[in-house]
């Protein structure tokens, strides 16, 4: 008996709770006027505004409208005229028409739809809203206005819990300072952060950024780009495995495998880290940097620990610091630092070593190799013709020393305080050495037999070259010395004071620019993750739990995800209410 009583009580309680649960899911409403039109709307109540709008409530959502058709049995309504929808205090929506399925909590709005969030406003012609997923979706074009930018796209999806928009197809973000065009853009309203996927450009008056995966802070105006990225300024292009961009500071940096192209001066700089200051028109490159400049149809390569390029295109200056190396097919050199003025064609090789001169610091003096000749001194200047781009002259200041290997043995040597070399078609043909000059050279006949060793001191000397070899020597102002037989010239006197042959350092190929230097360890690039795989917006939760109600204006074919539509159909798709024979305004008039 007690058992049956228990079952009875349990059944009553279960039915009561189930009834209560069912009632909790029902849509509630208030309306000034209620009528029925069974012929046109069988099983529905027609609700209308007199003084107050029709008001619906359902599980945290409120809807106001001028007129409505409510299917109580189906828990479904269609709203017309000045429709407003409110979910909590964070989401509000206005439209000309809306419908809502209380069973599936699926809503649709059309006709000048405006959805507002604290940070953004979305405008579109047709909007789908799934309250279970807390997502809104449009596929016929939409516009989102942020505090700093306006975004438009053909397809858009809003994730309310993440406060995130995912824009697809013809995405354009317009800011007073720049315009972003992208294939896909994920935008977070609370931060203004945008993640860029697929071919993307960021264009402004001063620069154009291209990337295929990147990040941009639309409020802070900084960006980070990691795939096929480059920044184009008016006369300079920056590429690298990763790029950082700061619009406020007119600053950009590049990391790993960077290439900076000067489109005005036909020069390219490579390395693994660079900083670009657009306002100051300067670039600093480190980590195995090398600059290549076209000169007379031949490239001049400059490498150093650090390269710095400054100045407007017409007055570019290249500076290199520490362990400078130069290579050209017919000339090479080394120095502590280098200064290249591309406007005047002047190149300075400078010794910046301070302190007393030692055997070590001597090796750091600038050196130039041209053919078989080696020239050293405290400072070396090379002068090119800016118009013809050919080498005109060479000047060595203080402790000038010219060395050339003899064809058989020993070294031909000339030293003095200053040296001036003249070039013709990039080949040296004359050298003048002034102040306290000394020469020591091996004199040979046409059969290359040694005649004797000449050692002479004079105030100045002129040397003429033929095919880059010493051909004639002229002495001026009371030269002293003479020609000595080889056996009478002591071996320990066959090198002038200050002699320092550095032929083993000579660069013979472009690869010698990095000879003896370790390959730099590249920085690990922090990537940008691929976009999350999106689940279908339209899906059927259960066989008997359809998103649509049979009285909906929508048809099953209207609920197609954008990825299921051909590209051409996506571009030509129209708002849903324009696909129907009856518009929302016509239906409203009939009510």
From TrEMBL:
<feature type="compositionally biased region" description="Polar residues">
    <location>
        <begin position="552"/>
        <end position="564"/>
    </location>
</feature>
<dbReference type="InterPro" id="IPR005653">
    <property type="entry name" value="OstA-like_N"/>
</dbReference>
<feature type="signal peptide">
    <location>
        <begin position="1"/>
        <end position="21"/>
    </location>
</feature>
<dbReference type="InterPro" id="IPR050218">
    <property type="entry name" value="LptD"/>
</dbReference>
<feature type="domain" description="Organic solvent tolerance-like N-terminal">
    <location>
        <begin position="49"/>
        <end position="183"/>
    </location>
</feature>
<protein>
    <submittedName>
        <fullName>OstA-like protein</fullName>
    </submittedName>
</protein>
<feature type="region of interest" description="Disordered">
    <location>
        <begin position="546"/>
        <end position="591"/>
    </location>
</feature>
<dbReference type="Pfam" id="PF13100">
    <property type="entry name" value="OstA_2"/>
</dbReference>
<keyword id="KW-0998">Cell outer membrane</keyword>
<keyword id="KW-0472">Membrane</keyword>
<keyword id="KW-0732">Signal</keyword>
């Amino acid at each position: 008996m007690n058992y049956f009583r228990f079952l009875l009580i349990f059944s009553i309680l279960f039915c009561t709770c189930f009834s209560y649960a069912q009632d909790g899911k029902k849509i509630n409403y208030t309306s000034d006027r209620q009528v029925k039109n069974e012929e046109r709307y069988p099983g529905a109540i027609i609700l209308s505004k007199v003084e107050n709008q029709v008001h619906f409530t359902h599980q945290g959502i409120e809807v106001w409208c001028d007129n409505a058709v409510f299917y109580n049995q189906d828990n479904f309504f269609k709203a017309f005229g000045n429709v407003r929808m409110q979910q909590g205090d964070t989401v509000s929506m206005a439209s000309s028409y809306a419908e809502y399925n209380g069973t599936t909590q699926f809503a649709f709005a059309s006709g000048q739809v405006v959805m507002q969030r604290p940070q953004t406003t979305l405008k579109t012609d047709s909007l789908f809203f799934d309250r279970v997923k807390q997502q809104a979706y449009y596929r016929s074009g939409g516009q989102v206005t942020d505090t700093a930018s306006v975004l438009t796209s053909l397809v858009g999806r809003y994730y309310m819990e993440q406060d995130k928009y995912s824009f697809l197809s013809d995405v354009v973000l317009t800011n007073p300072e720049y315009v972003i065009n992208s294939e896909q853009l994920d935008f977070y309203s609370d931060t203004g952060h945008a993640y860029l996927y697929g071919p993307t450009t960021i264009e402004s008056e001063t620069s154009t950024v291209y990337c295929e995966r990147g990040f941009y802070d639309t409020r802070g105006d900084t960006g980070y780009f990691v795939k096929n990225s480059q920044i184009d300024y008016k006369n300079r292009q920056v590429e690298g495995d990763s790029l950082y961009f700061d619009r406020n500071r007119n600053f950009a940096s590049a990391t790993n495998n960077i290439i900076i192209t000067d489109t005005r001066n036909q020069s390219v700089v490579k390395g693994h880290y660079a900083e670009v200051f657009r306002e100051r028109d300067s670039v600093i490159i480190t980590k195995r940097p090398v600059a290549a400049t076209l000169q007379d149809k031949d490239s001049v390569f400059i490498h150093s620990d650090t390269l710095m390029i400054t100045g407007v295109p017409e007055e570019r200056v290249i500076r290199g610091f520490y362990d400078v190396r130069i290579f050209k097919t017919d000339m090479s050199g080394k120095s502590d630092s280098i200064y290249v003025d591309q406007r005047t064609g002047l190149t300075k090789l400078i010794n910046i070593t301070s302190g007393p001169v030692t055997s070590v610091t001597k090796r750091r003096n600038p050196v130039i190799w041209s053919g078989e000749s080696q020239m050293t001194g405290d400072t070396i200047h090379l002068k090119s013709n800016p118009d013809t781009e050919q080498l005109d002259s060479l000047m060595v200041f203080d402790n000038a020393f010219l060395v050339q290997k003899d064809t058989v043995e020993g070294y031909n040597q000339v030293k003095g305080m200053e040296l001036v070399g003249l070039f013709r078609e990039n080949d040296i043909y004359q050298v003048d050495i002034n102040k306290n000059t000394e020469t020591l050279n091996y004199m040979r006949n046409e059969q290359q037999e040694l005649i004797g060793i000449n050692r002479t001191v004079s105030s100045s000397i002129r040397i003429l070259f033929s095919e880059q070899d010493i051909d004639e020597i002229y002495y001026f102002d009371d030269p002293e010395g003479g020609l000595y037989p080889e056996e009478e010239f002591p071996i320990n006197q066959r090198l002038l004071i200050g002699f320092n042959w550095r032929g083993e350092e000579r660069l013979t190929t472009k690869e010698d620019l990095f000879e003896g230097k370790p390959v730099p360890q590249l920085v690990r690039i922090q990537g940008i993750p691929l976009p999350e795989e999106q689940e279908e917006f339209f899906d059927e939760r259960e066989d008997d739990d359809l998103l649509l109600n049979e009285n909906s204006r929508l048809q099953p074919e209207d609920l197609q995800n954008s990825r299921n539509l051909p590209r051409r159909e996506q571009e030509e798709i129209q708002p849903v209410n324009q696909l129907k024979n009856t518009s929302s305004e016509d239906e409203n008039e009939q009510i």
